[in-house]
TrEMBL record, chain A:
<feature type="transmembrane region" description="Helical">
    <location>
        <begin position="168"/>
        <end position="194"/>
    </location>
</feature>
<dbReference type="GO" id="GO:0016020">
    <property type="term" value="C:membrane"/>
</dbReference>
<protein>
    <submittedName>
        <fullName>Cytochrome c oxidase subunit 1</fullName>
        <ecNumber>1.9.3.1</ecNumber>
    </submittedName>
</protein>
<keyword id="KW-0408">Iron</keyword>
<keyword id="KW-0813">Transport</keyword>
<feature type="transmembrane region" description="Helical">
    <location>
        <begin position="478"/>
        <end position="499"/>
    </location>
</feature>
<keyword id="KW-0349">Heme</keyword>
<feature type="domain" description="Cytochrome oxidase subunit I profile">
    <location>
        <begin position="29"/>
        <end position="534"/>
    </location>
</feature>
<feature type="transmembrane region" description="Helical">
    <location>
        <begin position="41"/>
        <end position="64"/>
    </location>
</feature>
Automatic annotation (TrEMBL), chain B:
<dbReference type="Pfam" id="PF00116">
    <property type="entry name" value="COX2"/>
</dbReference>
<keyword id="KW-0812">Transmembrane</keyword>
<protein>
    <recommendedName>
        <fullName>Cytochrome c oxidase subunit 2</fullName>
        <ecNumber>7.1.1.9</ecNumber>
    </recommendedName>
</protein>
<dbReference type="GO" id="GO:0020037">
    <property type="term" value="F:heme binding"/>
</dbReference>
<keyword id="KW-1133">Transmembrane helix</keyword>
<dbReference type="GO" id="GO:0005506">
    <property type="term" value="F:iron ion binding"/>
</dbReference>
<keyword id="KW-0813">Transport</keyword>
<dbReference type="InterPro" id="IPR008972">
    <property type="entry name" value="Cupredoxin"/>
</dbReference>
<dbReference type="GO" id="GO:0016491">
    <property type="term" value="F:oxidoreductase activity"/>
</dbReference>
Length: 573, 388
């Protein structure tokens, strides 16, 4: 580094500044309005939910090791299996995936990426976290009372006639919906009104674009879920006659209502992941993101088109041919914006300077896995093949490639990417990468065989199965165990870093977005004054400082122009 | 059935016999080849995208992996023509997929005039095929090369009928009829008489026939799987049956005739057959087990008194059982819900009498009741139907 350049590096925070230590005691967390602390509480909550949901998943897989079932046997065996897969789905969807990136990472990052001190409505933000907790309590109480065996979709009339705790669970989902709406509303207002000087819409980091698109869906679609669940409760308790054919209702109406929310909800799950991956790939390739505008617009396109495709969950339900064909056509349109993003990420890596850090390993697995998830969606959007594949393991494999191979991998990548920023500690990168590899291998071993199971005719949600499917099920189970080990390994790597990790510099990866310009961890006020920003992906002025093991932002030597001082002083001086 | 698939054929798909493709079960209907062709084309198109994309990614990672601090070779921000090309280009392929899929779909949607019609009644956790004329059976029997239409209804929750070998699936939604049609192309083989006799001997006294174990039906036919594909509760995974394709209509008619009425088997045996075939076994145990069953157990039920939901105490005699079959919600045993569907018009008097005879054999009171009945008949003072 030449001496002519000045470097900008915020150094390290003092204990008084550090948001983790500036106040202490349990109450300072419970009543905090700091978006970073709320984000960390969300992170702890969603990870705990993920562990519960993950253990249930392992239960499912171990049970399916043999055609007659291994784990849940006896006369109640099938019932227990049904409750286990229902809770696995419900916990993973409502308590983990939907809040994972938007609420945990989003809360931490959105204000900092905007150079703001907090979100627009800090109290609303805290209340959204407590709504999440309340929803979780309802789910746990459903589990503890008489369980839940409807599948996470609560299809009628099964859900109106089963004697399990449907009402508790749907109330839980209803409350979680409000948590989601509050977060979305908060981010929309924050991003609209609190951008710093110089940050026009097209100078926003792509993570913010993705969060913005997600928030639009959360605010517009979630109320429909709320209405649907309330109607379901009304049908169950008062027999209002909307969903249950016994009272002149129509079960397919429920499916329309439900998927009108739940298909956009798929994009609530995956859009923030796209945002994370855009950041990870650009930063770790040390190269400007390729096709910024196409990526930004495609997020919005997905958010809007996502509202028009819900009918593809009902291709076999007996809708009219015309409706079915129209929904198939609309479904294909939504695949284009996702494809655009993948092409752009791959192009970003080309001619970059790639650092294979742990987050980058997750980003690369994301590209691989999400592409499979997206392409296998084509088989399901095509009507002829969907009739065969609908409600088989092919569908299970497809959405796990999108939800786990996509969202979970991006979430892990994001957590590893921003971990030094969140806790101020570096983890062991080599062990992080080994964990990422185990997760990648375990995941593929779990779900690749399931495509084959599905196309060979294995229906989903089966507690027992025909012996000819045993071999593929066994492969899948061994894969799930490997995946579980990989995830545990990743968790251990992060936990060890808390105790033994080196102090993290402000900018360990070489990012340009604003969060890397404040200390690790950030001070409780984030920024003293709104920073002035330029292009978030312009890597010309970032340098590796080998001595400090950190990246620093440089400012080129500034010269006065003209260089010579005039020989005569102006008269008025 | 996917002919006795073993794990070996799955592990070595290329060595498996020629009926077996890697991805699919047998192609046993006129739809199968078309669906598989569309599937294969999408697969090849997907691979044509996936492999170059991943190869390019791998190349970039290997080629451009650099030490920290080294500069990227390029800081290009975008290339609009290239991006437009890869946005619009794939759309044409998608349009092709959409059109191919929709054409096949419309074929699969519209049953031809004059298809052979079979009724399907589904309930937790059983399909009951209605061959007309009071003949019901839980196996689906159809004729080769004959368009067959299933008119399907459900008496409780949503089910779905799925025959992988035919590549057809349709939800069965309560409160409406859903239809599905296909034309089978491969007749089911029949196993040798010795093999059948051996299996029959083995399964004697073992209760229901184990399709998975023998891989042929009790009549000795190889079969295709028929699954319920829409989650419907506890025994969803056991809601399966067999599809048998007969060579000729005559062969099917003969099979229907053989299953239409009791024939020359004993009433008790016929009652047990109906108990298994018509779905009673799904909700009522015969050994006193209560866990996991929706309805009361049939063990010792005949001739004993039970408290009803209405508060009355009723004796489960012939008339009560008859009423419970024809109008199940009239008197429900306390502690149970009124969820049983009616069998009115679906069982003949002989069928009902056979079931009652079968229930007697399950009860300690059965023998005594027979004697009492005989005595009653003599004095012609039969009990009246319990008030409902």
């Amino acid at each position: 580094m030449s001496t002519a350049v000045t470097i900008r590096d915020p150094g390290y925070p003092t204990d008084r500044e550090n948001y983790l230590t500036n106040s202490s005691g349990i109450l300072s967390w419970i009543f905090t309005l700091d978006h970073k602390r709320i984000g960390m509480m969300y992170l702890a909550g969603v990870v705990a939910s993920f562990i519960v949901g993950g253990l249930l998943a392992l239960g499912i897989r171990v049970h399916l090791l043999r055609p007659d079932g291994v784990l849940f046997t006896g006369p109640e065996g099938n019932n227990i299996y049904n409750q286990v897969f229902t809770l696995h789905g419900a916990i993973m969807v409502f308590l983990f995936i939907i809040p994972s990136i938007p609420a945990a990472l989003g809360n931490f990052l959105v204000p900092i990426m905007l150079g703001a001190k907090d979100v627009a409505f800090p109290r609303l933000n805290l209340s959204s976290f407590y709504l999440w907790c309340a929803g979780a309590v309802f789910f746990v109480s459903a589990l503890l009372s008489s369980g839940l065996d409807t599948g996470w979709t609560f299809y009628t009339p099964y859900s109106t006639t089963t004697d399990t705790s449907v009402i508790l669970a749907t109330l839980g989902a209803f409350i979680l919906g409000f948590s989601s709406i509050f977060t979305g509303l908060n981010f929309i207002v924050t991003i609209n009104t609190m951008r710093p000087p110089g940050m026009t819409w097209f100078k926003m980091p792509l993570f913010l674009w993705a969060t913005y698109a997600t928030s639009i869906i959360q605010v517009l679609a979630t109320p429909v879920l709320g209405i649907t669940l309330l109607l379901l409760i009304a049908e169950r308790t008062m027999h209002v006659g909307i969903f249950d054919p016994e009272y002149n209702g129509d079960p397919v109406t429920y499916q329309h209502f439900f998927w009108f929310y739940s298909h956009p909800a798929v994009y609530i799950m995956i859009l923030p992941a796209f945002g994370v991956i855009s950041e990870l790939i650009s930063v770790n390739s040390h190269k400007h993101i390729f096709g910024y505008r196409f990526i930004a617009y495609s997020s919005i396109a997905i958010a809007l088109l996502g509202f028009l495709v819900w009918g593809h969950h009902l291709f076999t339900s007996g809708m009219s041919s015309l409706t079915t064909i129209v929904f198939s056509a609309l479904t294909f349109t939504v695949s284009i914006p996702s494809a655009i993003k993948v092409f752009n990420w791959i192009a970003t890596m080309y001619k970059g300077s790639i650092s294979l850090t742990t987050p980058m390993c997750y980003a690369i697995s994301f590209v691989f896995l999400f592409t499979i998830g997206g392409l296998t969606g084509l088989f399901l959007g095509t009507l002829a093949t969907d009739l065969h594949l609908h409600d088989t393991y092919f569908v299970v494999a497809h959405f796990h490639y999108v939800m786990v191979g996509g969202t979970l991998i991006a979430f892990l990548g994001g957590v590893f990417h921003w971990w030094p920023k969140m806790v101020g500690k570096m983890y062991n990168d080599m062990h992080g990468r080994i964990a990422a590899l185990l997760v990648f291998l375990g995941f593929n071993l779990t779900f690749l065989p399931q495509f084959l199971l599905g196309s060979r005719g294995m229906p989903r949600r089966y507690a027992t199965y025909d012996p000819e499917f045993a071999f593929l099920h066994q492969m899948s189970t061994y894969g799930a165990l490997l995946l579980g080990c990989g995830l545990l390994y990743a968790l251990v790597v992060l936990m060890i870093s808390l105790a033994k990790g080196k102090r993290a510099p402000a900018n360990p990866w070489g990012g340009i977005t604003l969060e890397w310009t404040c200390t690790s961890p950030p001070p409780y006020y984030n920024f003293e004054r709104p920073p002035i920003v330029g292009d978030p992906y312009d890597f010309h002025n970032v340098e590796w400082d080998a001595e400090g093991e950190r990246y620093v932002l440089t400012e080129p030597e500034r010269k006065l122009a003209p260089e010579e001082t005039p020989s005569e002083q102006p008269a008025h001086h | 059935m996917i002919p006795a698939l073993t794990t070996m054929t799955l592990a070595l798909p290329l060595l498996a016999d020629h009926h077996d493709s890697f991805w699919f079960p047998d192609q046993a209907s006129t739809f199968a080849a078309g669906v598989d062709w569309v599937y294969d084309m999408i697969l090849y198109i997907s691979l044509a995208f996936f492999i170059p994309m991943m190869a390019f990614t791998a190349y970039s990672i290997v080629k451009y992996k650099k030490k920290r601090g080294e500069r990227a070779e390029s800081q290009v921000t975008h290339n609009t023509p290239l991006e437009l090309a890869w946005s619009i280009g794939p759309s044409f392929v998608l349009v092709w997929m959409f059109i191919q899929g929709s054409i096949s779909y419309l074929d699969m949607r519209t049953p031809p005039e004059g298809s052979y019609d079979i009724g399907v009644q589904s309930q937790k956790w059983k399909f009951i095929m209605d061959y007309g004329g009071g003949t019901f059976h839980d196996e689906l029997h159809v004729v080769k090369d004959e368009p067959t239409k299933l008119s399907m209804r459900s008496t409780d929750v949503i089910h779905a009928l799925f025959i992988p070998a035919f590549r057809v699936k349709k939800d069965i939604v309560p409160g409406r009829y859903n239809y599905l049609w296909f034309q089978a192309t491969i007749a089911s083989e029949k196993v040798s008489d010795e093999e059948l006799a051996k299996a029959k001997k083995q399964s004697e006294g073992g209760g229901t026939w184990d399709y998975d174990k023998y891989q042929f039906t009790p009549d000795g036919y190889r079969f295709y799987d028929l699954y319920c594909a829409e989650y419907c509760g506890t025994d969803h995974s056991e809601m399966q049956t067999a599809v048998v394709v007969h060579e000729t209509q005559a062969e099917l008619d003969e099979w229907i005739k053989a299953n239409s009425s009791r024939g020359d088997v004993s009433m008790v045996q016929w009652g047990e057959t109906l108990f298994n075939r018509r779905g009673c076994a799904g909700c009522h145990s015969i050994d006193g087990t209560k866990d996991g069953f929706t309805g009361p157990s049939f063990k010792d039920v005949y001739g004993s008194s039970h408290a009803m939901v209405s508060g009355e105490e009723l004796l489960a005699d012939d008339n009560y059982i008859r009423e419970s079959i024809l109008d199940p919600k009239a008197q429900v045993v306390a502690g149970y819900s009124p969820v049983m569907p009616t069998f009115k018009g679906q069982l003949s008097d002989d069928d009902i009498a056979s079931i009652i005879e079968f229930l007697k054999t399950l009860s300690v009171n059965g023998e005594a009741a027979d004697d009492a009945e005989a005595a009653d008949a003599e004095t012609s003072s039969t009990e009246t139907t319990p008030a409902s």
